Amino acid sequence: MTDGTARYAYEDDTWFIKLAGDIRHPLGPALNALLDRALAEPGDSRFVIDLAEAENIDSTCLGILARIANRTPPADATRPAIITGGGDIAELLLAVCFDRLFDLVDSADGAHGPLQPAPAIAVGRDEMLTLLLDSHRRLCAIDARTHAVFRDVVEALEGADTPGRCGGTLS
Length: 171
Prior knowledge:
alpha/beta, Transcription Regulator spoIIAA
């Protein structure tokens, strides 16, 4: 698998975020910072997430993407969209109930400007632990099925600093 990358473009009140390769938690801080920036923009931005070239996406990055659906859009706003590319990624998104949060489409036209790389962000252990925990709590909140799947992960992360529990390194 190839290392994951995050690139983006913003034009006409739409954020295009393209994730490619193996999308795992080390990319999480950069993706989270990009969403911090996007969600802080004034107005009612649309979001299109392109996963067509993603080989895999882990639960941490899925939880970060769920932030987009957690914002309060105006009543007439369109739902954020995810281009799945079909196949395994589409099945994964359905398994974690992302069809409740996003419009899932197999393909779409690439009508956006040049994509810029999301800047790499270095974080410490505590910041990464918080990011992991927040991401998995977001996944638990989608519905009862995702709560059952990710509940143990949340409990382990909550006890990460307790001796004898899930301590150690986050790699």
